[in-house]
Write a structure and sequence with these properties.
alpha+beta; 2 helices
Length: 83
């Protein structure tokens, strides 16, 4: 039985709604998540971006922002953010 998180959309298409952006998350296999731009103002999400900068600099091999954490950690963290 699956569940759906209302604030995070996982997608494989290139369609990103206005007000959202794509990030790639995962340790070995990267999964694409589409998240609201409002996350950029959240200190927890800013910490993830700082980790991404430390690990990848400004070169992201997936073509988008790559977050260096597990999918479970990312989902747990983003579920605590307010939009």
């Amino acid at each position: 039985m699956g569940f759906r998180l209302p604030r995070i959309a996982s997608t494989e298409t290139s369609d990103i709604p206005k007000g959202y952006f794509a990030v790639y998350v995962g340790e070995s296999q990267k999964k694409r998540f589409v998240v609201p731009i409002s996350y950029l103002n959240q200190p927890l999400f800013q910490d993830l971006l700082s980790q991404a900068e430390e690990e990848f600099g400004y070169h992201h091999p997936m073509g988008g922002i790559t977050i260096p954490c597990s999918e479970d950690t990312f989902i747990d963290l983003t579920s605590r953010l307010s939009v």
